[in-house]
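I am writing to request your help with a piece of structural work I have in hand. What I wish to show you is a protein chain and, alongside it, a tokenised description of its three-dimensional fold. Could you please explain, in whatever detail you think fit, how the structure tokens follow from the sequence? You will find the record immediately after this paragraph.
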Amino acid sequence: MRLTRTLYLSSLLLVAALTGCATGKDTTYGPELQGFKYPYPVERFRFSSQGQSLQMGYMDVKPEGTPNGRSIVLMHGKNFCGATWEGSIKALSDAGYRVVVPDQIGFCTSSKPENYQYSFQQLALNTYQLLDKLGIKKATLLGHSTGGMLATRYALMYPAQTEQLVMVNLIGLEDWKAIGVPYRTVDQWALADSKLTYQGVRNYQQTNYYLGRWEPAYDRWVDMLVGLYNGPGQKEVVWNSALIWDMIFTQPVYYEFKDLKVPTLLLIGTSDTTALNRDLASPEVSAKIGNYKVLGKHVAKLIPRATLVEFADRGHSPQVEDPEQFHAALLQGLKAL
């Protein structure tokens, strides 16, 4: 048994070396995720914002299949990066799409400013400027988790430039503070994020993203997140993260779903229970929030041109947990909208 375990651990280390991440708990990456391997080349969009010179890392992947003349922008969530879209990039590129995948300011391969007024409007403007630089006049926006809130804001600000809107288990399907969830200060967020551990993040993701299930491939995304937060740029990474958490909690898009003008596809893992600051809420409030089986149907009725596709027994990241089913539904939905 000891020999078998040794061989098993050796194989995990080999997989880690081949995929550009480590299964250990001590791997760290630079403040712009230096050292972590992305699935496609990362380019840099340099621009000025709020009196600062900043840069956004992004991937611009050309169609591998027969080009269909369409572009799609993938927006990552709060605990994710552009790299997390690896499987979706390939599926969409193979289907003929040009796929643009930015890391937003404050995240992953992009700048971590010392001071920045975070808003979904600002991040949407940054994304619009990137697409303009790339010569993309109209695109489909696909957002996961917090990226769904951002994609919503983009579609509200730039309806003429938005061909379609796709949202995957977006958070913000409800206004937590209006329901009674307590506020957590920026300083409290920063303290919590400064103490991330590999096992703690894995336990959270296993429970909330994958419903208790775990595959070795998921280790890569834990490694990415914890390695960034515990790396040499920890101070700026953690501070920007705390400001972004505050943006998410205090800037709901829920009340504006009714104002969306573009065809919208909701892809919802119905067993998701994600809700910000649930740990601070009373038992009565906690029981009310994060019920995606109900929230998906509710929001689909609020959005004028919405189509809802549900994935039973799937959690917060159906595109990672069940990529075959997810991409089939996504590509079919994109054709139907």
Notes: Residues 23-336 form a domain with the Rossmann fold fold (CATH 3.40.50.1820). The radius of gyration is 19 Å. Residues 50 and 117 are 8 Å apart (CA to CA). The first strand starts at residue 43 and ends at 49.
